[in-house]
Amino acid sequence: MSVDMDTFRGFAGQIAQLGQMAQPVDLPDYERVARVKAEFDEKIDQTRATFLESCVRCGVCAEACHFFLETGDAKYAPVRKMELLQRHYRREHSPMRWLFRLWTRDITPDDLMEWQELVYDSCTECGRCMLVCPMGIDISDMVNVTRQAYAKAGLVPAELTVMQQEQSESGNIFRTGPDDLKRIAAELEEEGIHVPVDKDKADYVLVTSAIELLLFKDALRSAARVMNHLKLSWTVQSCAFEGANFGMLSGYEDVQATLTNRLVGAAISVGAKTVIIPECGHAYPAVRWYGANALGERLPFEVLHLSEFLGREVRAGRLRLKPVDSERVVSYHDPCKVGRHGGVFDEPRAVLKALGLTHHELPDHGVTNFCCGGGAGNFLINRAQPLRQKTFELKRRQTESVGAEALVTACSSCRMNFLGGADASGWDHPIESLVELVGEQLDDGLGKRAASRVR
Amino acid sequence: MSFTEFVDGPFWYFSLSVFVIGILWRLIGLLSMSGHTDLSRKRGSALGGGLHSVMSRFIPLSTVQTRIRVRTVASYLFHIGLFVLLLFAAPHIEFYKTHLLGFGWTPMPHWAFVAVAAITFIGLIVLWLHRIMYPVTRSVTSAADHIASGLVFWVMLTGCMALGESSEFLRVLHLLMAELLLLYFPFSSLMHAFYWHVSRAYTGAHYGRRGVKV
Question: pTM (2 decimals)?
Answer without folding.
Answer: 0.93
